[in-house]
Amino acid sequence: MESELQRTEKLQVVSEIAASVAHEIRNPMTSTRGFLQLLSHEGLTGEKRNEFIRIAITELDRAELIINDYLSLAKPQAEEITEIPLRSTLSHILNILSPYATINNVKLKIDLEGEASVVGNSARFNQSLINLVKNAIEACKEQGEVKLLLKAKDELASIQIIDNGVGMEEEQVSRIGTAFYSTKEKGTGLGLMVCYRVIDAMGGKIKVKSERNKGTAFTITLPNVTYHQKKPIQELPEF
Ligand code: ADP
Ligand code: MG
């Protein structure tokens, strides 16, 4: 159960982020407004008119991306906590993202070793994995390959997302997961922040290994409840 203090802390973080989200959304709103105003000028060529409409739509799309990514963190949905089986979850993520991999010319591979279950909100957990695999796909260049690995070993389950893409400098690695840090033209810089928050809330850890122009490996480790439920009987207290 979440303590009062944890809840207060979470609210504080969410409202701090809300303030910066509001700021980030104001920019595309302001420029959309500007372009709509320009549209009302008489004597505009059809070409200019189309260009202004296109820019306004692009800006609105950007605002929508930011709102969507933020909502996956702040949604006041009932926090339903369940046991999440990892094999089927990872296969599901692979299915969801294979069209995205295909259009980006990236091979998506999966290797599941053993079975494990973790405990958490499955919608948020799925969202976190999707964010990581999407990033891996987006990091790829030609001959791109993304591997999704599961290793279930006793009390810990580890999930790895490995790509052979652009990689990151150390300085970049230290900045990922902070709000709005993005190197992409259409990035929101909210995806990894959501991942870190969700995995942390599940009692897990995320490690990153990356090398420029070689690739990146994200490793998530989480307590494996399947193992903990099967603890040997001799661990019962002695009388
Ligand atoms: P976004 O994807 O919207 O940019 P994220 O929070 O998901 O935001 O990622 C933040 C930044 O971290 C990315 O813009 C990118 O620079 C870097 N990054 C994340 N994952 C990878 C990866 N697998 N390979 C290289 N860089 C990555
Ligand atoms: Mg992302």
TrEMBL record:
Keywords: ATP-binding, Cell membrane, Kinase, Membrane, Nucleotide-binding, Phosphoprotein, Transferase, Transmembrane, Transmembrane helix, Two-component regulatory system. One of its GO terms (cellular component) is plasma membrane. It is a multi-pass membrane protein. It catalyses: ATP + protein L-histidine = ADP + protein N-phospho-L-histidine. It is found in: Cell membrane. Residues 20-226 form the Histidine kinase domain. Its EC number is 2.7.13.3. GO terms for molecular function: ATP binding; phosphorelay sensor kinase activity. One of its GO terms (biological process) is cell wall organization. This is histidine kinase. It comes from Exobacillus caeni.
